[in-house]
Amino acid sequence: MSDLSLSDSCKVAVIAALEREVWAFVKNWPTVRHSYDNRDFKFFENVGTVVVCGGIGPDAARRAAEAAIDIYHPLVLISAGFAGALNPALEVGHTFTARHVIDALDGSRSDSGSGRGVLLSFSDIADVEQKAKLGVAYGADAVDMEAAAVARSAEAHGIKFLACKVISDTSRAALPPITQFVGSDGKFHVLKFLSYVALRPWLWGKVRRLASDSALAARRLGAALSEASQAHEAEQVVSR
Fold this sequence. Notes:
Low-confidence stretches: 1-5
Shape: globular
Mean pLDDT: 89
Radius of gyration: 17 Å
CATH architecture: 3-Layer(aba) Sandwich
């Protein structure tokens, strides 16, 4: 375990669900493990930025955000990762920083003060029919599961918040069943999922498409996060 020297200079903390979402951003970064609230977290550290992948869903995102805040004291908290398109015009690989984040659970809305568009945080992985209904009901452009929880943590601690997302599936994309392989801790059980798919050849095409689209989305998100973190590090230097 490293010392906590980065905690004295961290400007940006990025909260993601899974490592495959941010691998293009954190590849070759050193890692360190810290415990918070009786849970173990792996952090990727690089100069003034730290990344933690807390798992899928709002509870996992909240725990990861609180851990990053307590250990690293960031000035900016970014919810980053994949999102499903609700706007039919958005294609796989489209990156955006949402101006507004809506929590579908209670209708609350967070305004980041910058960016464009509306991101909706929903309690489940939306299918095609749900995407159509959510887009109309909330006027949102895309849907994820974690951003609203991260926004709430940032607001509670008086930290600037951003939602930096990339479209990993279009409004027309039918995904293979994923939700049932997400544990209560937010972890995705890959081997169980692959075992399930292996016995169902009609899902193979969807899984191949998902893998291809996810790889493209991760590369695009990595570039967007690099730009965002550098911009905010520079902003803090100028403001001092």
